[in-house]
From TrEMBL:
Residues 6-120 form the Response regulatory domain. GO terms for molecular function: ATP binding; sequence-specific DNA binding. CDD domains: AAA (cd00009). It comes from Pseudomyxococcus hansupus. The modification 4-aspartylphosphate is found at residue 55. InterPro entries: AAA+_ATPase, AAA_lid_NorR, CheY-like_superfamily, Homeodomain-like_sf, HTH_Fis, P-loop_NTPase, Sig_transdc_resp-reg_receiver, Sigma_54_int. Pfam families: AAA_lid_14, HTH_8, Response_reg, Sigma54_activat. Residues 145-376 form the Sigma-54 factor interaction domain. GO terms for biological process: phosphorelay signal transduction system; regulation of DNA-templated transcription. The lineage of its organism: Bacteria, Pseudomonadati, Myxococcota, Myxococcia, Myxococcales. This is Type IV fimbriae expression regulatory protein PilR.
Length: 472
């Protein structure tokens, strides 16, 4: 199928409009034809077009003027200029004005088809270039699914088998597990890799706007539709559309999505015509779609269309062996992004122990945020337990890692919670004062308490900050 879908022919000769409409429709394009420059500009404002075939001499507005105004309003439009009165100067003027090519009349229809194929090849190269640039950015998430745990490797083996085929895939898993990364991996390993990967969160739009976002709309389709809009299915044509949180789609949009999956065509809001699209759909959900079907909130036929293959992304608590690798990767990234000088070298053993023992209810996203905070707070060459969020400590037995309170618990000793918390507070305050060489303000920041609260605790526990500083 051609990369371009919609073509507008603007020519005052009925025979040219007729023959181009016949030939290009037969080649799979959706073609409309108009007879003057003003009508061409109105049509471009009302609907999305991939290509404008424009005659130079037309009533009301000349072709080169249409070229200039069309590209100003629609920068991504491909324009091919045609003329029976052409000259080399006119051809150069058209190309300098932004036209892709200039065709001299009379021409054979296959000449126009050849020019369109060249334009499509240029567009493919531009898209591939953009994709490669995005993939080379340090912060780009594509292509970096890290981990050697058996559960994750099982998912990646499924990705390898599914990537070459166009099967619809439903990715399930908790928030923050990396469902979009799995979708990107499916796309990057597929024959569609050079074409767009478009991601949309279906729960991020009001129910009245999601159809316009996915399928596009015509000018005047609703109150705020001042211009035509190209939908995300059209943007993803030839590539992959990732529908995150697909369970949030309203029922009306579900009907349209089912039609795309069954017929490969979309109908923009406010349009009477349909457009063919060639898109692989990958959906994701953290909700139980089967339960939503039982409650009448999700169409059963759409559920079975989406759930051809289900990939479950394991939560981080099921792949705790991957936590240190992920943490070190995030440390390396945030060293660059935050311009750490000198950079953090890694994790202290006690910090790594805390990271591995924590259940990570927010999964990889929560770990990423914790590492960004730790890189910001760390003073030395390693991430220390004191640089990690308090919630990691709350998940462990009271007392410092490997400290007295933990030993007492293992030996069946004193189980007073109040006494253990008091001992832990004193231990932390002494450690912070040693780390900051007695600097109370900095110690309060490390402990995540106010300066006044620290002074109160120092007095309560009878701590000598200068003595602690000498031990630091």
């Amino acid at each position: 199928m051609p990369l371009f879908r919609t073509i507008l022919v603007a020519d005052d000769e009925p025979s040219i409009r007729h023959i181009l409409t016949l030939v290009l429709t037969d080649r799979g394009y959706d073609v409309r034809a108009v007879s003057d420059g003003d009508e061409a500009l109105r049509e471009l404002a009302a609907r999305d077009y991939d290509v404008l075939l424009c005659d130079v001499r037309m009533p009301k507005k000349q072709g080169l003027v249409v070229l200039r105004e069309a590209l100003a309003a629609h920068p991504g439009l491909t324009v091919v200029v045609m003329s029976a009165y052409g000259s080399q100067e006119q051809a150069l003027e058209a190309v300098a004005g932004g036209a892709f090519d200039y065709v001299q009349k009379p021409f054979k229809p296959d000449e126009i088809v050849f020019v369109l194929r060249k334009a499509e090849e240029r567009e493919r190269l531009l898209r591939e270039n953009r994709r490669l640039k995005e993939a080379s950015l340090p912060s780009a998430p594509e292509g970096h699914i890290l981990g050697s745990s058996p559960s994750l490797q099982a998912v990646l083996r499924q990705v390898s088998r599914l990537a070459p085929v166009d099967t619809t895939v439903l990715i399930s898993g908790e928030s923050g597990t990396g469902k979009e990364l799995i979708a990107r991996e499916l796309h990057s390993r597929s024959p569609r890799a050079a074409m767009p990967f478009v991601a949309v969160n279906c729960g991020a739009f009001p129910s009245g706007l999601i159809e316009s976002e996915l399928f596009g709309h015509a000018k005047g389709a609703f109150t705020d539709a001042r211009t035509a809009k190209r939908g995300l299915f059209a943007e993803a044509d030839g590539g992959t559309l990732f529908l995150d949180e697909v369970g949030e789609l309203p029922l009306a949009a579900q009907v349209k999505l089912l039609r795309v999956l069954q017929e490969g065509e979309i109908r923009p809001v406010g349009e009477n015509r349909v457009e063919k699209v060639d898109v692989r759909v990958v959906a994701a959900t953290l909700r139980d779609l089967g339960r939503l079907v039982e409650k009448g909130e999700f169409r059963e036929d759409l559920y079975y269309r989406l759930n051809v293959v289900n990939l479950r992304v394991p939560p981080l608590r099921e792949r705790s062996d991957d936590v240190p690798l992920l943490a070190r990767t995030f440390i390396s990234r945030f060293n660059r992004q935050l311009n750490r000088d000198p950079p953090i070298q890694g994790l202290a053993p006690e910090a790594e122990s805390l990271l591995t023992a924590y259940a990570w209810p927010g999964n990889v996203r929560e770990l990423e945020n914790a590492m960004e905070r730790a890189v910001l707070l760390a003073d030395g060459p390693q991430i220390l337990p004191s640089n990690l969020p308090d919630r990691l400590w709350a998940a462990r037995p009271p007392g410092p890692v490997g400290g007295p309170a933990r030993v007492a618990l293992q030996d069946g000793g004193d189980l007073s919670l109040k006494r253990a918390i008091r001992e832990m507070e004193e231990s932390y305050i002494r450690a912070a004062l040693r780390k900051t060489k007695g600097n109370r303000t900095r110690a309060a920041e490390l402990l995540d308490i106010s300066h006044r609260a620290l002074l109160y605790k120092i007095k309560e526990f009878g701590i000598d900050p200068d003595a602690e500083a000498e031990q630091g």
